[in-house]
Amino acid sequence: MIFQRSDAGPAPRFHLFRNTLQRIERGKDAMALRWQAFFAVVDLAILAFFLFGPYLRAGPSYLIIDYLIAVWIGAELLLRIVAAPTWGVLLRRPMTWIDIVILATLLFPDVLYNFAFLRAMRLWAVGNSTLLRVGLRRAGYPHLLDVVRALINLLVFLFIATGFVYTSFFYNRPGEEGFVDALYFTVATITTTGFGDITLPGTAGKLTSVVTMIVGISLFVRLAQAVVRPNKVHYPCPRCGLQRHDSDAVHCKACGEILNIPDEGD
């Protein structure tokens, strides 16, 4: 007797579930964009929890919210594992490792609080999402994509630098005083204002200040370039590989190859 496996078996259902997750992760249709918007809102809420952590740390609700976020990130990481085509692709994604570290900081807040500032990287994920690109295109502002991403990168670095300075140098100060001092120092250092009224002690403090100034200035320059640079579109030339062209370009400026750049419609 020959038995035939039903199409409604576990394997087809699993592949259907994986395809749905991949569609949500990278799709541009209405359903995928709604889910991406939902995940983006959750990411912003997690960032808000990180920013208001110094105010909530003494209350009983802090650990409850902390572990709820841990459950969410753990579930999201599990779904990302299911949706990944291969383990190699999954392990090459920066957000995979960042989420693992974030999950560890949430599960062991008393031990790994020094790495809590990495939660700001959730905002970086929003800046590199399909939702942002498609949203700006549908709103009629596709030329602002590079500007918005440069601004998000600057904000992410500001949050990360503030978090690192706070947990490394000002964590034991009462209430919100330590976090405000860390934010004040970071902004003054990134903008090279250098009031000097708040400084970081020791060699580690000096090195932190140097790195903050160098990276902060670089990100400011990158943002300025994105603002003043003429509008370009990302379209690789089939001959020479040049990535950026004028939106109405017919020929590649580098090699003269005829281009067929699609319009801004989806």
TrEMBL record:
Chief location of this protein within or outside the cell: membrane
GO molecular-function terms, A-Z: voltage-gated potassium channel activity
Keyword Manganese applies: no
Gene Ontology biological process terms in this record: action potential
Domain Potassium channel: residue ranges: 155-227
Topology class, membrane: Multi-pass membrane protein
Annotated protein name in UniProt: Ion transporter
Organism from which the protein derives: Pseudorhizobium pelagicum
